[in-house]
User: Fold these one by one.
Assistant:
Number 1:
Amino acid sequence: MSLSKQEMAAAVARDIPPGSYVNLGIGQPTLVADHLPSGSGVVLHTENGMLNMGPAAVGDQVDPDLTNAGKQPVTELPGASYFHHADSFAMMRGGHLDVCVLGAFQVSAGGDLANWHTGEADAVPAVGGAMDLAIGAKSVFVMMSLFAKDGTPKLVPACTYPLTGVGCVDRVYTDLATFEIRPEGVAVLETFGTSYDELAGRLDVPLLR
Amino acid sequence: MLVGGFGMAGMPVQLIDALIDQGATDLTVVSNNAGNGDTGLAALLAKGRVRKVVCSFPRQHDSWVFDGLYREGKVELELVPQGNLAERMRAAGAGIGAFFSPTGVGTPLAEGKETREIDGRTYVLEHPIRGDVALVGAHHADRMGNLVYRKTARNFGPVMATAARLVVAQVTEVVETGELDPEAVVTPSIYVDRVVRVGGGER
């Protein structure tokens, strides 16, 4: 069986070392937080200026001054800290974050990431912190469906959408397989409801076993 | 104009309302977003006062004002990666002439900019962003203009407060000098020119 979004999130969470400092991108990657085991000691960074962010705020917990990068109300955990934007992004560029998890439109075999702009003429472009995260975190995990709704692969020889970062992706977690981007090529770490041979036939990217 | 806030957190809504009343036009606004809903920055945009927006993330579920103006060609957009946006203002406030950033290298947002390889890594030259005026939302101020912030509403405030000729802060309370813990002050008074108290319940 292919993985659901929650199962993909769980697969990412399993690969996050205990005690890591982690940034979860807007959208699907936020689901990863629900799958981190209690006591993992993972500290979540939110780029609007906080470490040790807690779960979504509900009811009386909602505070307009306390939001995540998606501007949703969240909570703080003991040991949380606040800082301004220049510090928050210095943490990324300075290589202090262990892992970031991002969504993607496309990832290339060389680890290029495209996740901010579809290139459509009338689309309002928005980049946020994606470019800073992509080049800053020690490990960049991408979480995406392997194929677009029209069936075209999102793991590609070269990105056709505008790039977010060059050669920055380390792992790609998808509904059908988990891949590792290595200097020698793209390795299949695990498959879900499909096989190495079937994937090799559907993707234009050479795959290592 | 440097305008603080991340979404509505830290957005100096009352100062923007005052700017609308004041009537300034043909503005270049630097802010993380390009307005949410119909208040604050969105209201300023809706009045047609803004010529150009410099920001990282204009497109949101509630950015209909900006989206409409942009599609009609009525507002110019300079899209800047969020970290470069913050650092370019930090550089302005810290007297840095320009700096090499790894963010954006090889992407359309670095096109036409000078790059340099340093210790095997490629960086792109980014220039400071300096404001004529900064409007920031803080939590409390003392009479000297020392500022403290609240939670993630801090966001761009401390950086923007260093990077403009005239810095105006809106706060929910002004306390007597000496009442803020000096260890807790985030923006020292040297950066702040005006403080405006707005009602505690208002945002």
Number 2:
Amino acid sequence: MLWLYLHFHHLLLDHIARSREDQAPLAIISEPSRRVLQACPRAMHQGIRPGIPLKTALNLAPELVMVQADDEQQKRILEQQAQWLYRYMDRITLYPPDGLLAEAGSLRRLYGGLPQLREQLTRALEERCLNTTITTGSTPMAARLLARAGMPIFTGEQQLLKEHLEQLPLEHAGFEPATVQRLVRLGLSRLGEVAALPAAELARRLAPETLVHLQKVQGQRPDPQSCWQPPRHFHQQADFGLAVEKTQGLLFALRRILVELENDLLHRQQDTDSLVLILRHHQQAPTRMRIRTTGPEHRAEAFLNLLRIRLEQQPLVAPVESLELTVTRFLERHTPADGDLLGDGVDQEEAWHTLVSRLQARLGEQTIRHLAPAADHRPERAWNAREIRDRSRSTREADVEHLPLRPLWLMRQPQPLRVVPDTWFAGPERISGGWWDGEKVLRDYYIARLPEGQLAWVYRDCHDGWFVHGWFG
Amino acid sequence: MSDLLNSLLREARLWQGHRQHAISHSPEPTGFPMLDGQLGGLGWPRGALSECLLEAAGIGELQLVLPLVRRLTHTQRTVFWVNPPFIPYAPALAREGVNLDQLVVIETESPQDTLWTLENCLRSPVTGLVMAWPERLASRDIRRLQLAAEAGQSTCILFRHRHEANQSSPAALRLELVPGSDLSIQVNILKRRGGWPGQNCILPMETRAGQAGGDPSARILQGPWPDPRS
């Protein structure tokens, strides 16, 4: 069996560098020791090396963006990588904080050879600006050790793999530091030399665990791997290191995530109509936004336009430290039923969704509404307005013949009638109802023309008050 | 002649003295033969702004646009109502045969939002008609809307107060609506493309009171008021 291991050199750095629009040097620091753990190439160029104290680093590069090492966060980022890698390979095992194992024997057959597989992977990793070492190994442990030692061997030949493994320096062999020290004192420096020792002696003189480890590396002891299951939802996070104050900076990171979402939806063969965006601030409640489209959508550009409108409307309450985008609702992909074959014409359905989504993003969902009649005798309840969600449903054909004569304009609140109408046309139409829900209505409606020429729908209530309730516009 | 000049002539943007050209733009008939005749067969211009100037709502201004709304909503074009002064009453619209699925009511909060909304609606290919009741519009804003309507080839009708009549406006069609003596409405053409303005016509709108002429008081059973005939 052949295994493949991806070792990410500085996952956290790469992740933050991709979310940031500027080109500031980045470094990961360890809080207890106040020393630099990792530095990005730009920071390295300015003389910052892993291990130097924080003060020195700041003197070398005052604009340095410092990020605290956080294993939990790195584990989450690793999982994000697994999500897209899942399109290339199944049977992934996560090795937090910075590695990923996959079974390569079946992949070799799928891609038609190891070089092709490597090419595909390298291209995908380069697209995402991830510094990685990819290696193969005859056992999971061997692949992992080779990758972590930075020996980029990528072959299926067992003999070659074995030779490389034997050449592995002991400090990279994954033993306990005390064990390594004892072995070095014995005059051993390579893994091959340790493997040549008699197994029983090794277990007795050092520790049984050391033997177990060695046997796992060599494949003489089972080393079962538990497969990672991709989540059903789409979830991506962007961390900025230094808080972002401008919307533009957010859009930069969002664009990348949305492209990732578009690819994800493409692989799922599904669409979505709602995104949840969470902006996390420093010491403040996170901002939560829900972006909805009226129809199924998958294009990153369309989502980005909506997000841009929404972010313009809603100023940031505080600088943003990180953002999360989640999609939990997936819809069947919509196929235009009557689109023309060459796709020249404008898709009306799509244009409709684009327009309404844009309007909703800027004005809010409550302000754009459809109207419909409702079954009630009281005029103010004989209609309702509903949000626009999907246009595909068709309302029943109203029985036009039996509808009573009503004005085209209805007032939001009936207004007292202040002038005496000069002509009366029809009436009275008595409307009495609402005794069942406490909003009782007892009115006599008339149609009358006011002196200014307006045709009004007026009523008299049971207290002899006269009101205008609508206009025959 | 150059293409530019040809297109100007064809769309009647250039007025040629004595020659009155038939317009090749597919017009949107108003549904009132008398008004269509006065407008030279143009109807509501497509891809341009129209203005209706009136004193107060309720004089039959919606009846004037209702044939257009009815026709557009049944050909699956959307009709937008932006900031209507009152609630467009769904039962009445349904009774008039309007397809309510194609009707969208939008309420905006600020003038900037209104302008943005109008522009976006006008530019979209789904739009058939945009009706708007804007509070105040600068001439510059009307020009922007005019360009948007041209881009989207949609019809836009702005309902404005009558005192705007003496302000100049880039709209292609300007109608002044005055209530007539009975239920009719008098339409004065203040401006139109490709012809002289100044025509007027009186359109009967009796149907909105639910009757076709006759003695109005005959319909009233017995009111609480003094007898109108006395």
Number 3:
Amino acid sequence: MKSIPVSTTINGDACEFLCTPDETLLDALRNRLGMTGAKEGCGTGDCGACSVTLNGRLVCSCLVLGVEAEGAEITTIEGMADGDELHPLQRHFIDHAALQCGVCTPGILVAAKALLEKNPEPSDEEVRYWLAGNLCRCTGYDKIIRAVQAAAAEMRGA
Amino acid sequence: MSLDEYRKREFKQVGQRVRRPDGVDKVTGRAMYGADATAPGMLVGRVLRSPHAHARIRSIDTSAAAALPGVKAVLTGADLPVQEDAFVRDVQDNCMAREKALYDGHAVAAVAAVDAATAKAALKLIKVDYEVLPHVTDVDVAIKPGAPVVQAGRTLENVPAGMSENVTSHCEFGHGDPAAGFARADHVVERHFRTAATHQGYIEPHAALASVTSDGKAELWCCTQGQFFVRTLCAAIMGMEASQLRVTASEIGGGFGGKTTVFIEPVALALSRKAGRPVKIVMNRDEVFRATGPTVHTSMDVKIGMTKDGRITAAEAHLRYSGGAFPCGTVDMGAQAAFAAYDLENVRTYGWNVMTNRPKEASYRAPGAPQAIYAVESVLDELCQHFRLDPIDVRLKNAARKGTKSSYGPTFPDIGLVATLEAAKRHPHYTAPLKPGQGRGISCGFWFNFGGNSCVSLNINTDGTVGVTEGNPDIGGSRASISLMAAEELGIPYERVRTIVADTSSLGYNDVTDGSRVTFAVGLATIKAAREAIRVMCGRAARIWGIDAEAVEWKDGAAVPAGPNAGKFPPMSLAEIAAVSFETGGPIAGHHEVNVDGAGVSFGVHIVDVEVDRETGATKVLRYTVFQDAGKAVHPSYVEGQMQGGAVQGIGWALNEEYIYGPDGRLQNPGFLDYRVPVASDLPMIDTVILEIPNPGHPYGVRGVGETGIVPPLAAISNAVSRSAGIRLSELPMSPPRVLKALGA
Amino acid sequence: MVKVRLWGSLRQAAEGQTEVEVEARTFKELLDRLVETYPGLAPQIARGVSLSLDGVIYREAWFTEIRPESEVVLMPYMTGG
């Protein structure tokens, strides 16, 4: 299959890559660009481990084609920290022990950040429903909810 | 260490909620998991899997696949040696079928090609000539004489005559005279139960990158709970010497027991050897469900007799477990664990393992225990309802304690069940008011916990920091816990210790990360290694001061003269001793190698409130509290995390998760959409109460905590459903259709 | 002599007994004596057994000392997740 050139912006940096027409954005990120922060847990949009944002919208990158990134703005887990300054969500995930194996963590952080940008003061229930598309098998979600709420409070300046 | 000594100890580091050393890597996407590794010239490996539940492989024609441009190697079972050892043979045959495909998804061939598209195309060109055979996927069918035989000739000498050849082993445990006990009971309840097979459901699919070179050396990177065991199995399958195969464990994206064996690792190695290039295989989710993991599925009968004041007079269980298409010992564990929580005069458990055309069972958190204990705790609850007795009081009345002869034989030493039950009874959750239609259930749980082979090397760096090298993949924060124990023993801040997980060429053999063993056993080896380093440091200080080594002791991170007679010298800190180590004899290290025994058993009690929706049959978990004995919680947040994660896996097992096989013997739901694990919106917060009843077998009193938490939820929820909706289900999961059926809707 | 408690399904291999007595000072000696005295136990012992000594479970450990008054229980080889 002939590859297609794609010009896009990832985490604020202009970026070009080649991919085949049937290649997912997740595979392009991981295999073409070396950005392995997004994980493939299912390949069918059920687990959320591959979450990124595409033009500000939270998506499963396993359900997006690489060519759909043309002209788009993509953010991934690799762009969440500002240099060595962790995002409050990242910091609170560590401080609240909200990760064990950590393989779902990049997707959950990307999803949680997208939530807080829309809704800076979500209820626990809103956090739970927003994150319902992100499977975590280790934690039982308890500490994840607490970490998201602690980060939200900090970001609101509370 | 004696309990008195333990109780005197004031911990400075252990018990602190420190930041884990792998935290930043994991929140920034930098942590390297199995699928994240690459190698120069790497090929993509893919596996062809049987679409049949049971079929003889007449022949496999790989010529067209091999001829496809870009294909560099093709592999079938005929390329691998025939193993003499039955255990290794089963593992190998599960990785790549010989003669027969034994379940839907069983690997029959594999290819390595320049890219994924070529590998996929090559799989389509492999022609397998199958003779489809009758299959059996249900334990109750497979146990009957005349059922299709999954594998012939696998029955052990302990199986009574007259059963199907699918029955591979039988076990019996217990003591006393159950018949006499039942005769003394005021009421006897006997029920039949079934539980579905579930999958560990780790989010990270199996991944392996193998590189075999023409001089016979090999590197293997994979996500595993035990790189040393992977080496043992792969070296046997590949006919290699252990020293030539270096296995490096990547960060692991969950295991829960499911990554304690090999699936694609030997296949990647064999393909790499054939192709002369590195080969990476990453499973997709469909493959994970069809060909790895699941637990046993079970059929059980439990009978308990009780007096009207709540004393159990006799108890009996018949357990029929199927661990899939190979012999499996998990029923032995279930049969021993079934009644472990209780002090019983008359108790007997019988177990049978039965082969079915399903994937080979892999361990899952407390393997075998959740099922049997679900059945026992359900019957016990029904008796409490019958006599209108408080379920915690009844459990306290019958609870095993120090000196109880356990249902599996040994007499218990110090155990924490009574304290755990009392904590549950005192907790506000237990007496909180319930609304109409809501129900509260409780259950006890038990797991043995293990120790095992552990090597630790602890190096004192010249700048006063410390490196700990251990050999167990860190699933739930064990690097933090091990660093805490090293810091505690050495008397230095946690931040000065860094713990890493070594590859198989860097350290002696370490058992798999399983059996809740790592914080206990590797922790013990770490403490002993630190003591060895302290002995060396005290010796160096003694030489510097010109006094006897025996006259120096270690206090608060420094060597000090032991008593006034030793002489007057200011304390010499670890950093000060380390700084002059080259001048005083060379680098300083401590190491310890041991096969640890003395793991303390662990008990848990869970309380859950639920509400059953009578229209949809859905069960909503409203409130959940876990009580568990941790011995000593080294890092309380990660102990809570084990308790919460185990509870939620158990909730999934109770309410939703199941392997569903169609009449064709194929798995109907090999994906997260149809195999539904709990999501955030299904759940409340999971409250935790950690009890600390020290384990005399560990210097700090640590017990394993990883497994017990999955045991109680099954019965706790079933008992709560019974009290919420007035229906007593006896089959798991209690999915909405089953609940609706029980409601008569 | 040490009293060894067997689990139920080993009874048929030990002349119908669930408690047997052998002369042994260590785990290894105990296993060797059991196999000599009750050859029917050999296949299970070869597959692997654990030993509970005064309530503490040992998975291997040949040289673990057994005193005559010790409580010794033979168990299947334990596996975990």
